[in-house]
Amino acid sequence: MVIRVSGSADAVVVGGGTIGAWCAWFLERAGLDRVVLLEAGTLGSGASSRAAGMVRAQGGTEHAVRLGMWSRDFYAGQQAELGIDSGFVAQGYVMPCFTDTEVAAARERIAMQQSVGLEVRWLEPGEVDELNPAMAPGLTLGASYAPGDGYIDPPRNVLAYTAALFTSGVEVYERTEFTGLTTSGGRVTGVQTSAGAVDSPLVVLTGGPQLAAVGRAAGVRIPAGGARHQVVVTEAHPDLAPERLPMVFDLASGIYWRPEEGGMLWGMSNPEEQPGVATEFDSSYFASMRERVAELVPVTASLGLRKSWAATIDYTPDHLPILGPAIGADGPIDGVTVVAAGGHGMMWGPAVSRAAADLALTGKTDVVDTTDLGLDRFDEQGLSRLAPDPIALPFPERT
Q: In this predicted model, which residue has the larger pLDDT, 50 or 365?
């Protein structure tokens, strides 16, 4: 049975992934009487339930650091706030350096991160080996290390935001497609959906890898795309016990790993692959990346896989979030906010969601400076005037 949506709402949020769901919850918590959440599928059925759950504040820009710190604190405080949490574990995160150029960049990055307030420090090569006995010794020239970085359990995160939505009173409409905006005089007056129309003065557009399509339905060009990301979990082994395995990100290869069920979860993206929806596992690319992982964590060479999957994750050309007003053919559309996490839905999701709710309600936020994070930073070809965040997966640079 199709449930019809109608009437008037104080705000409508499009998208039931990590960004849209937490944004709707923040709007409800701000005191709005009726918040409507539209999801074309079911809550968490997209990338949110297929993520690796990495949560770090060791970003390459001040924006990234602030978003990461805010989100990390949110996850850590969920149990007290909600009575349920997303399973956050402060595992500690190591970013090893293998060349002098990487060392110089890491030391400069640490200084910036510390100036923002992040607890992060430089590890000498021997300290890297001592902290990470599962990794082959003597390979690095040192590393940056943030002990408070960690990871969440993505399915539990979906459970947490689902519980938060329904206990707070947000009206959730699953299997309901957003089909367009209703506007008058340059201002939004409501939304059209596959199950009816809703009047509303505030609309927040999210959608992860489908955000560009959501934008087209709204008459807004959004330079956000989707790319395949692959994750595997090895068999369990004593050498991969959590106390022997801090989280690690090998920036040069774009491979990261963390403990999972007695084994090692690791993920990868192919920078040479064309953007687009892709959920099939690429065995040949996995095989090439497995060689690098075996070099770094030798025990994995003899281990089979317990799990493997692929998901389409979102990205932006500069790997930074989008937070700002919608811009249509005739200029900004008052009352409509566009939101993307730039491929960092778990890592920045709560902070980006809270900032989006603030922007929708008041036009400003104290979570992060959004002055340069709007759609107006992109040119007609979708290229950003901002330098890309250097601490990101190897996403494409065009959508």
A: 365
